[in-house]
Amino acid sequence: MEGAWIALALTLKVAGWATVLNLVFGIAVGFAIARARFPGRDVLDAVLTLPMVMPPTVLGYYLLVLLGSHGPLGAWLIEQFGIRLIFTWQGAVIAAMVVAFPLVFKAARAAFETIDSQLEDAARTLGMHEIAIFFRVTLPLAWRGILAGLLLSFARALGEFGATLMVAGSIPGRTQTMSIAVYEAVQAGQDDAANFLVAVTSIVCVAVLLAAGRLVPGRVAARGG
Amino acid sequence: MIWDVELHRGLVHDGTRFDLAIRFASEAERLVLHGPSGAGKTQTLKMIAGIARPDSGRVAVAGRTLYDSAARAFLSAQERRLGYVFQDYALFPHLTVRQNIAFGLRRGWLNPARSFTDPAVGRWIGAFHLDAVAGHYPHQLSGGQRQRTALARALVNGPHALLLDEPFAALDKALAKRLRAELKELQEQLRVPLLLITHDDDDLRDLAHDVVHLHGGRVVAAAAVAEAT
């Protein structure tokens, strides 16, 4: 049972970091795509949404090719900083982040697109600079939609299996997250451990979904005006 | 000259091209731009405020040149310091009346706190009888209260001029009449130049020192408007 708690702690750490990174990148990219007008915008949107529909093992393979010690980014990281991501929990964070990214990005883009641009114009006539407008008008109004996406991405990151296994492997206590531990337990015939892990995972996921359901953008509309 | 405006802009709307070519100058402290919907009134007001960009032209208000395409001068909306009251008021839905009014006074990345106090905010809340609803959110307000909040928010920064887009269109006739009288009195007190756009003849009669008639993106004589509408 102790192994299960270690796996749970590791899973929360990995999913937590992945969600924090997606908070920053998802909002930034979602805002850029919602506002910028450039050719190829739809293509870029599709590419960024790809992790949602592609098999996680394929994504994991891409990440291995990119981040491995012979990969363009991996070789550079080792050379410049001595950082190795493959078979580390940080590698698992990258895998979970990429897989869950579209959920935040899509939610953020939709939330930013529903904001009445007149409110931002109003802030401009009141002398507010663009960065201040983003933090005082745009982000607060989009926040609920983004938060719902963030919670979904956290849930997705909690359950990440394929890409994580490809990139970080299954090292107990270091990179073995809950979903991988379940697989290992079943393979090894440890039914008790598997049952416990499955129950804990289910409870955490239901709790996250309930929280996300309370934050769907529909509730904001009733409050706005 | 208080208002000196010349604006050119080609717009494509629903597949049809609309050319806006407006030119007017006036010494009137209360100037009304009058015309039917689709005449280009709101576009004109937005270009004066700097939240829409003309192709070419010149805008000078109360002796300050805000835009001059020939001299490549363009002040941003932030630098123009013109108060703007939007047709549907554009109050910030996530902020209370007090926070909305204080919005322009608080610099930086954070909104004013709900308890934010400032003499100017207190003065306008009092002047517009908003004390009882100062802690309310915009969706909890009546139409008249929303309009007053929007007006207070625009005035609290001490703007060089006030631009109003159909400020009474969303209100019933009796309330519009009362608020029109309030606005007139306020303007006479503050002596802030005021430019109001409307399709309502009551606004002309009660408020205007001078009128500019717009139709189809052009300035026209009053008779032409009567004929066309």
What is the CATH third-level topology name of chain B?
A: Rossmann fold
> Total helix count of chain A?
11
Query: What's the gyration radius of chain A in Å?
Result: 20 Å
What share of the residues of chain A lie within helices? over 70%
Largest interface, counted by CB within 8 Å of the partner chain's CB: A-B, 22 and 31 residues
Shape of chain A: globular
Overall morphology of chain B: globular
Number of domains of chain A: 1
Q: Please give the radius of gyration of chain B in angstroms.
A: 18 Å
Instruction: Indicate the CATH architecture of chain A.
Output: Orthogonal Bundle
Q: How would you explain this protein's 3D organization?
A:
The complex is a heterodimer of chains A (225) and B (229). Chain A is mostly helical. Chain A has a single domain, classed as MetI-like fold, CATH 1.10.3720. Helix content of chain A is 79%, strand content 0%. In chain A, helix 1 runs parallel beside helix 5. Chain A starts with a helix and ends with a helix. The C terminus of chain A is likely disordered. Chain B has a single domain, classed as Rossmann fold, CATH 3.40.50. In chain B, the strands form 2 sheets. Chain B has a 6-stranded mixed beta sheet, with helices on both faces. Classes of the chains: A mainly alpha (225), B alpha/beta (229). The interface between A and B is medium-sized, with 22 and 31 residues.
